Amino acid sequence: MIFMRLFLLTLFCFLAVGCSANAVNNGTNASSPTPAKKPVGPVPVYGFEIVKTYPHDPKAFTEGLYFKDGFLYESTGKEGESSLRKVEIETGKVVQKWDLPREDFGEGIAEVNGKIYQLTYQQGLCRQFDATDFKLLKEFNYPGEGWGMTTDGTLLYMTDGTHVIRVMDPETFKSKRMIVVKRDDGEPQMRLNELEWIKGELWANVWHSEDKEVLGKPNYIARIDPESGAIVGWVDLGGISPKDQPSVSTENTLNGIAYDAAGDRIFVTGKDWKNLYEIRITGPKTQ
Fold first, then answer.
1. 72 part of a folded domain
2. Residues 154-204: pLDDT tens digits?
3. 245 located within any domain
4. Residues 56-66, buried b or exposed e (16+ Cβ, 10 A)?
5. 3-class SS shares of the chain: helix, strand, coil, % to 5
6. Contact by Cβ (8 Å): 98, 131
7. CATH no. for residue 265?
8. Less CB within 10 Å around the terminal CB: N or C of the chain?
9. Which domain holds residue 131?
10. Whole-structure pTM value
11. At 3, which helix (H) or strand (E)?
12. Strand partners, 188
């Protein structure tokens, strides 16, 4: 009898809980079993002001750029024309240069611990140079394409034309992790190109951002959280250089960001542009 009473009591409790659960499921939450996502506000868009204009070699097909100790370091592309350069910012004069083999297409550059790293486009080859005399020290191989590159002072960050940024160990040039970059609408931001590390953010040129399938807005720079890959802001540089290259050029494309941390100055230029611009960020703009 005791066993039977325990059995009936357990059965009663089971049925009561079941009825209670059904009552909840049949209530107001029945049509939305998972909470709705909270709407996300638009990513802020910042404008710019030109602080100063500097001369830039109009035959420099800029693929990489950074600032150090009063000089710009630049990587240029195109087969037969690719180089690594040290440039006087005030005059645009090239004071040091290393020419890549004619078959190579130079891409992004960055410096870590006195060594310059330079990517190539489709050769899968990264070269390491002594930053003082441009002596070639080492070569690394990597899969896929090389586009842009920067550093946080310890690690290297490189793009390959997709929405993925690879975080690389400068000693081995092996990938440590991947950063997947998406817009606030959830779509991947493709064609990430030249990079710069600015105040804890990754700033990325978007190659031909004016193309509708890419972004639909000309000369936009994405400001990226390096931990999450989220785009936390845009810099709209549309119209910065409407007549900035020779008539023979077909690549009127912003590509090249350099940051002077000591002076808090930002420089931008593009492929075959005759000017380099120091800019001040304004905004954000009202949506």
1. yes
2. 999 999 999 999 999 999 999 999 999 999 888 999 999 999 999 999 999
3. yes
4. bbbebbbbbbb
5. 10, 45, 45
6. no
7. 2.130.10.10
8. N
9. 45-282
10. 0.84
11. helix 2-25
12. 182
